[in-house]
């Protein structure tokens, strides 16, 4: 398994840690290409400092956010109080991991999730909204669906408990290693500043490890 943990870096931002693994040559080449693409597109996002435009009057806390998914599959996004706590929210985005990585190459990624309050239903927490309209940098790209944790999700988060900040590729379960699989299981984890504007609006801004630079990545939850 290969991981990049940025939480304790003192020097260059990216350092790849290797543990012993045996793979055949062709898969190793594909692995290297996938990991390089992930790191080049996604790790620089960890360099985002919270925007000065965020209101200091809003309630602000720091939580853990994790993107994960197969390279050819859809991205999931999980929010936790810390790396070992139960998820506050788990969403599945209607875009593949590769699409999200391409959007990050432009240096600015803003994901807006919008929903409408049903006047005939009680107002729930934003974390419990079942379906969101999803926009990436102003373009509608489909929907984000709240879902329950699966056994696979639990296994992924357990593997990553010791990773505070970083990006990499997780080992595939034996049952998933086939020629028609969706590729490597990629992840990106970072600390996010959570800003609560009201019961109908929250935002999450990726936080920068001190001394590094990078692009802006923010997620907005808006209910009207």
From TrEMBL:
GO biological process terms held by the UniProt record: hydrotropism
Superkingdom: Eukaryota
A Pfam family the protein falls into: DUF617
InterPro entries attached to this UniProt entry: MIZ1-like_pln
Name of protein: Protein MIZU-KUSSEI 1
Source organism (scientific name): Ziziphus jujuba (Chinese jujube)
Lineage: Eukaryota, Viridiplantae, Streptophyta, Embryophyta, Tracheophyta
Gene: LOC107416005
């Amino acid at each position: 398994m290969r991981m990049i943990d940025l939480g304790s870096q003192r020097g260059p931002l990216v350092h790849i840690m290797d543990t012993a693994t045996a793979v055949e040559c062709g898969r190793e080449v594909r692995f290297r290409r996938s990991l390089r693409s992930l790191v080049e597109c996604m790790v620089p996002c960890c360099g985002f400092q919270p925007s000065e435009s965020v209101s200091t009057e809003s309630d602000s806390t720091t939580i853990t956010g994790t993107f994960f998914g197969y390279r050819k599959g859809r991205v999931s996004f999980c929010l936790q109080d810390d790396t070992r706590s139960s998820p506050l929210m788990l969403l599945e985005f209607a875009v593949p991991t590769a699409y999200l990585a391409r959007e990050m190459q432009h240096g600015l990624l803003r994901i807006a999730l919008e929903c409408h309050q049903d006047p005939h239903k009680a107002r729930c927490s934003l974390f419990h909204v079942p379906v969101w309209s999803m926009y990436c940098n102003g373009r509608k790209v489909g929907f984000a669906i709240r879902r329950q944790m699966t056994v696979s999700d639990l296994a992924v988060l357990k593997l990553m408990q010791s990773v505070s900040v970083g990006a990499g590729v997780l080992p595939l379960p034996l049952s998933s290693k086939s020629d028609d699989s969706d590729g490597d299981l990629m992840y990106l984890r970072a600390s996010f500043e959570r800003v609560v504007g009201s019961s109908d609006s929250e935002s999450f801004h990726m936080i920068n490890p001190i001394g590094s630079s990078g692009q802006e990545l923010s997620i907005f939850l808006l209910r009207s």
